Structures are given as structure tokens and as C-alpha cells.
Amino acid sequence: xxxxxxxxxxxxxxxxxxxxxxxxxxxxxxxxxxxxxxxxxxxxxxxxxxxxxxxxxxxxxxxxxxxxxxxxxxxxxxxxxxxxxxxxxxxxxxxxxxxxxxxxxxxxxxxxxxxxxxxxxxxxxxxxxxxxxxxxxxxxxxxxxxxxxxxxxxxxxxxxxxxxxxxxxxxxxxxxxxxxxxxxxxxxxxxxxxxxxxxxxxxxxxxxxxxxxxxxxxxxxxxxxxxxxxxxxxxxxxxxxxxxxxxxxxxxxxxxxxxxxxxxxxxxxxxxxxxxxxxxxxxxxxxxxxxxxxxxxxxxxxxxxxxxxxxxxxxxxxxxxxxxxxxxxxxxxxxxxxxxxx
Length: 342
Description:
Helix content is 44%, strand content 25%. The protein has 9 helices and 12 strands. The longest helix is centred in the middle third of the chain and has 45 residues. It is an alpha+beta fold. Helix 4 runs antiparallel to helix 5 and helix 5 runs antiparallel to helix 6. The C terminus is likely disordered.
């Protein structure tokens, strides 16, 4: 009884008939019950009768008979003013040899404020999601407007060079719009790269490939995922490389194929864009790198990766390769490596 009375947690000790034998000072204080009136009363008669709850009676009966135990059961306790408090109850049957002398120890925790805080948090998260969705919608609309203005300007200018630059700018804005659309659709922390690249390439192809029987754009990737910020950089790299292929690899309306690939093993991964077009120019060493090349190099550096350009016979293969210092061992190498006892 001394232990019960001195408990900092609100607890009540009941006999087999649910009569209050004693309770902690914290219980009386928490639920505004006069300590001198509680001993000898039934639990259900405490206060103004707010403890007389059917679910509580059933659970205590099951606990007293040994058929069940109250474990983190939540219930609402309403006072005479109609105000409700959310409680978490735990009850345990205490036996001392004779079943007739069994007692029930009931602990009560008021989680009203905690549940209210959780609700406020959920409401804030829901409001944040709605606002984010609205921002994404406005960004998408703004990008579409910018792309339309650039395209209209490209149609009006008389200079072929200026028209080419404006068309290039239009394609880049559309690629960023496609990135934004795909990432907005993915509400997960991790982005599934294969479906992401497929949708991205479908968007690029819809805006830049006039005859899909003439030029084919395919994605061959494994089941890798990446964080959203990494996938943005990967998507921009794919966009720049695919646009570069469409602009330079198939002059004169020749047939061809562009393939986007992605494979990873542990922390190491390779992103590649290859085509079967005209290949690397003979005077590549003397040519000036374009804006797209600079963008790809910068993004690769941001990802701690390197860019490798090779002749695909026919066509060109550009690979962005990320290798950590501690390379992931090959399965065959791991099997042949001598085991060290520990």
C-alpha cells in the first residue's frame, strides 16, 4: 500500500470486487478525487460516476477471471461538463496463493495532450502536402508558359542560329518540366529509377521525336532506387545526353536507336546513354564543348562520378560512372578469396 500511495504514476489497487483499496496521490490529483472518500468505494463510483464505463467493466471482469489482461487499452473519460479525456489503461491481476485474495493493479495514463499534439502534427503535414501540391502545380504551369513563349519567339526570328538557340532552350525547359512532373508524381523518399527514366524518355520523345518508327528511344535499367535529389541530377544528365543524341547522332533523317541504361551494385552505379548514329566526329579534339557537355560534367562532378565517352561501333556511348574507393567484390572473387578465421 505504501508503494502504491507513493507512485508518481496514477495507479489504483482494487480487490476482486473492484473496490478501491488504495491509490497513488498522483491518481487523486490527476482526476480531482478526494483521497479520503475513495477507499471502500467501487472504482465505478469514483468522482461523479464517470468511471462507470461498460468497456472498463468488461475488461476488469476479464482480468479478474484471468481470461485477459488490459494492455494499453485506450478509452475516453467524460466528466459532468461533457469534456473528454483520452486515457491509456493497463491492468494486471495480482495473486498471493489464495485466488480469493487476488487483487488488480490498474494504471492510468492521460494522453489527451499527446493525442492532440499528434492530431495537430497530422493536420500540419496534410496542410503542407496540399501547399506543396499547389506549388508543384503552379511550377508546372509556369514552365509550360515559359516553353510556349520561347517556342513562339523561335518561330518569329529570322536568324537560323537564334532559332536554333531558342529551340534548344525550349527543349531544356520542357525536359525540366518533365523532371518536375515525374518527381511530383513520386511521393516516396526513394525514387524507382527504371519507371522514372521510362516516363522521362517518353516525355522527351513526345516533344522531340516526330517519327517514332524512325527513331526509337528505349530504357534498360535494373530495379535500383535513389534519393529524390540524386534522381533529379540523374534525370538532368539523361535529358542532356538524349537531347544531344537527337541533335547530332542522326543527321539527314537517318534511322536509329537511343538506349538509356542504368545498373548498380552496392554503392557503385553506371548511367549510360548510347546511340547507333554517326559516331564520334573525327575532329572531336578540336571541337568546342557545348552547353550540354558542360551541364553533364558539372552534374557528374556533383555526384562524385566521372564521364566516359567511347565509340560504340556504330554510334557513341556516354557513361557516367560512380565507383567508391572500396569497390564491391565480385561474387567469383569473393568465393575464391581465402577465408580468415576469427
